[in-house]
Amino acid sequence: KRQVVSTQSTGSPLCRMYAPVVVLNTNIKRDSGRKAQLSNIAASKAVADVVRTCLGPKAMLKMLLDPMGGIVLTNDGNSILREIDVSHPAAKTMIELSKTQDEEVGDGTTSVIILAGELLSVAEPWLNKNVHPTILIDGFTRAMDDALEHLNKLAFKVDLNNKEELVNIVKSSLGTKFGANWMELMCDLAISAVRTVQTDVDGKKEVDIKRYIRVEKIPGGEVEESAVIPGVVLNKDVTHASMKRRIENPRVILLDCNLEYKKGESTMNLEISKAEDFEQALRLEEEYIRNVCNDIIKFKPDLVVTEKGLSDLAQHFFVKNGITALRRLKKSDNNRLARATGATIVNRTDEIQESDVGTCDLFEIKKIGDEYYSFITSKNSKACTILLRGASKDFLNETERNLMDAMCVARNVFFDNRLVPGGGAVEMSLSNHLMEKSKQIEGVPQYPYKAVAIALEVIPRTLAQNCGANTVRLITELRAKHATNPTENAYWGIDGNKGVITDMKKLGIWEPFAVKSQTIKTAVEAACLLLRVDDIVSGLSKKKESGGGQGASGEDFE
Question: With 80 as the cut, is the pLDDT of residue 202 above it?
């Protein structure tokens, strides 16, 4: 039988309306509307769950295997998420949060992920009830402004000259880390290092941790042997056996040029027709190095340090004149050395002036373990090196991460000396304040505002869970404490070691205001950003197309 197809209806507007129009490529997957929002929330909650157990003094460690086969053993939120390879775009956004938090204030990387995940989690029921994301975002933003205003009232200033108070603040940061076993030592190292590099430039405080503090990790020995060296420690030995290995008050010249014959930058051919020409070429090379060395020797330095090479002939001239030389330094080490000695890094030897020569108290080479280290120290140095000793590389890496967090906390306090109570006290006080204020808001906007108050309780709740306490009973008790007298009991939080509620003033658990305010801002803004997304278009990369790769659940999102 022939099939009869009617052509009369194809021209009707109704049929044209429902005709399928393919715009996107066939191997593109698209999630839009409610499905995209719920997908983002699920991904964010999954990332938050990864680091949830890493909060508080009873935090668990994560063991991660990197692509090179190395092991990362840590409970630092940023370090964990940095090693994890995720495919979902929302999960990538969440990981960026902890990176931002780490760069901005250096601490609170775990808290910000947990809080952002919880904010999206409390938004989910309202999305299911068809509340528009814009209304949720307005409520979240309003709650954030009120929370930061209340946070200002809770903050108080600390005396930066009082070392005990500074130690207590750094202790609060280290209390949740692996380095808590050597609390006093780590606090002293962090505060001494930050104090060393602190400078005043045109009336402004400057504390550059990344550039002027170096952590030198040397496996072996005991942790107690760790110390802050006021100056620079280099994993270098002298280039010639006859050079001095200890010099007091040396004159130092820093160079950024080769102390060997200058080679041609491109391929260079030299045609030699007789033996005299060859001898002359050698003589010219020797003469060039002699002139370069004479430019340096006339300033009578005791120590010459260069970032580039140092030929045998140049070493010979230096040894004859009693000069010690180090070669092939990193640019960052040379910059630190310039700050420690007051010398200027010179690019050409014929441009050296007396003002470019620096000095320090002592240059000494010591053998630690199997390696030789050059110590260039000065009491007035504005750059320092933290010498870390320990049993293994994994141990040293984790101790370094803890120490960096502690130094960031100390730096934040030097810039902004306001503190707020730790142990989940701030979050519970903010939650109680927002819950009370939400009663004054009418209509639907009240619910997202109240949702932020509920979400803030996730920090004390997680602290209670991680120390194995009865979470429901403890949180109810803490909530009641804040509700009965919000002003007097604002400093009550959870003791993460014992699993009881206590006054943070008596316990001495403090957090810098900068860290806490940044955590709240970053978490709320990230939640608002992900709630705005209503369409996810994911496709394969060209490489995967040919190999018949996976679709939207694959690894590449474009």
Answer: no
Which helix (H) or strand (E) segment is 367 a member of?
strand 362-368
Residue 66: name the closest of 541, 405, 388, 394 by CA.
Answer: 394
239 in Cβ contact with 365 (< 8 Å): no
Residue 129: CB partners within 8 Å, gap ≥ 6? none
- Report angle CA 182, 185, 187 to the nearest 5 degrees: 100
> How many other CB atoms are found less than 10 A from the CB of residue 9?
8
- What is the token pair recorded at 330? 């990193």
Count of Cβ atoms closer than 10 Å to residue 150 Cβ: 18
Beta bridge partner(s), residue 305: 254, 326
Which DSSP state fits 9? G
Q: pLDDT (tens digit, 9 = 90+) per residue, 253-299?
A: 999 988 888 776 677 777 888 888 888 888 888 899 999 999 999 99
pTM, to two decimals: 0.80
- How does DSSP classify residue 369? T
Query: In sequence order, what are the beta bridge partners of 459?
Result: none
Rg over CA atoms, the chain: 31
CB atoms within 10 A of CB 270: 8
Residues marked as catalytic? 76, 109-110, 405
Is residue 89 within 8 A of residue 557, CB to CB? The reply is yes
Q: H-helix or E-strand containing 386?
A: strand 384-390
Give residue 9's pLDDT band: very low, low, confident or very high (50, 70, 90).
very low
418-421 vs 510-512, strand pairing mode: antiparallel
Residue reference for tokens 């608002």: 528
How far apart are the C-alpha atoms of 201 and 146, rounded to whole Å?
35
Compute the residue count for the chain.
558
Residues paired with 345 in a beta bridge: 254
Q: 235 in helix, strand or coil? A: coil
pLDDT tens-digit readout, 477-495: 999 999 988 888 888 999 8
The full DSSP string for 239-293 is: SSTTS-SEEES-EEEEE-S-BSPPPPSS-------SHHHHHHHHHHHHHHHHHHH
